[in-house]
Amino acid sequence: MKTLFLVIGKTIDKHLVALIDDYAARVKHYQPFDIEVIPELKNTKSLTPEQQKQREAELLKKSLREGDHIVLLDEGGREFRSIEFADYLQQKQASVARRLVFIVGGPYGFAPEIYAMAREKISLSRMTFSHQMVRLFFVEQYYRAMTILKGEPYHHE
């Protein structure tokens, strides 16, 4: 199984970029893991939130393939403890044939058609985080889950 982390807009803070890249490289020691950045929309001041979500949906769909297991990072999604997330990923490794795709949407969330394509939604917290921070938190938790599954000493319970 391959995992794709699909995000809209590049991370601009160089410190966050370094941390995200570090954790992504660590995850790659365990399984194929890629981060794909969809370019941020330009001139969004003239767009309504619905129009912006629709345009982002069109860009997201270009990166998706038939058979992808799509999981949205969404405030209304299921929350996990780290060990539960590790179990979740282990189940996905056994059941997802092609790609497991996690998506972080734009500032207004997702268009209805992206929600319809998704198989699941997960939430990192009931709190709201910037789209930049969510990337770091997600990749770190993914790495943590891999170390839990391998019985390595990164996670303490």
Strand order of the largest sheet: 2-1-4-3-5
CATH superfamily: SPOUT methyltransferase, trefoil knot domain
Basic shape? globular
Helix content: 40-55%
Low-confidence stretches: none
What fold name goes in the CATH topology slot? Alpha/beta knot
The CATH architecture would be: 3-Layer(aba) Sandwich
Strand and helix map with partners:
Elements: E1 2-8, H1 14-27, E2 33-38, H2 49-63, E3 69-79, H3 82-95, E4 99-104, H4 112-117, E5 120-123, H5 131-150
Parallel strand pairs: 1-2, 1-4, 3-4, 3-5
Explain the overall architecture:
The chain is an alpha/beta fold and 157 residues long. The chain has a single domain, classed as SPOUT methyltransferase, trefoil knot domain (Alpha/beta knot, 3-Layer(aba) Sandwich). Helices cover 44% and strands 22% of the residues. The protein has 5 helices and 5 strands; from the N terminus they run E-H-E-H-E-H-E-H-E-H. The protein has a 5-stranded parallel β-sheet. Strand 3, helix 3 and strand 4 form a beta-alpha-beta unit. It is globular, with a radius of gyration of 15 Å. The mean pLDDT is 94.
